[in-house]
UniProtKB/TrEMBL annotation:
MF (Gene Ontology): hydrolase activity
UniProt keyword list: Hydrolase, Signal
Protein's name according to its UniProt entry: Dienelactone hydrolase family protein
InterPro entries linked: AB_hydrolase_fold, Dienelactn_hydro, Dienelactone_hydrolase-like
Keyword hit for Hydrolase: yes
Signal peptide span: 1-18
Annotated organism of origin: Solitalea agri
Endoplasmic reticulum found in the keyword field: no
Record-annotated Dienelactone hydrolase domain positions: 83-279
Amino acid sequence: MKKLFLLAIVFIPCLLYGQTKMSCCQVQSPTSTEEFAMLSTDKQFVNSHPDPIPFDYKSEIGRDVMIPSADGKEVHIYEFKAAKPTNNYIFVIHEWYGLNSYIKQESEKLYHDLGNVNVIALDLYDKQVATNRDDASKYMQSVTEERAHAIINAAIKYVGTKAKIATIGWCFGGGWSLQTSLLAASQAAGCIMYYGMPEKDEAKLKTLKADVLGIFAEKDKWISPEVVKEFEENMKKAGKKLTVKSYNADHAFANPSNPQYDKESTADAYTLSLAFLKARLK
């Protein structure tokens, strides 16, 4: 019985840590994207995201495009091509519901408000779109870093080596906005992240080539003011420029389908975002 008990002490923690890609021989902390994905098991976090209001959006200029990726699978993007040829691009990364009509509408809004720019909404869910929070939780948890990187790198290859790439995302997409700018390397022109999980690895942050605008919510229980403060400190240590704007609002305050939607804060954040992007996509 003692031997079985000791085996349990050793084996059970390994099972518990499996979801964070740890092993008994080599314990590793979850990455920032894995840490955020783990929130899908937090009932309070899940319940803070009510099911989105049904919304069907049709665009006369947006189009679905499938492009190849290095892992042998196709990648889905939703693209708005600039009226005149330009190397300025914005990559939009969706919230945890997926590349739905709200994200497509926001992408077209950016396209029109910024002028001559290409806008590409990335689909990290491979055409899966959640209409309720349970499916959103499942889809977010199922995203692997390997596949997400393949999708992002495929989009970077698609736009070409001369492209200047700015990124923007919300919630799940906020964290992936930063990761996309990291992957874009010297092509990164600017990063906007709305209440997404910041990168905590100082070594990775040192490789960042773009300035960051971080938009956060003071009442956010997950991407909390403490998390934001740590991000500010890490960016300072890495020698990178970060502008933080925090609103007296809740997580996902910029989502119009959320009862916690804060119209005034959303409008102000959008004005800041446009100014940030215009200054970097000249």
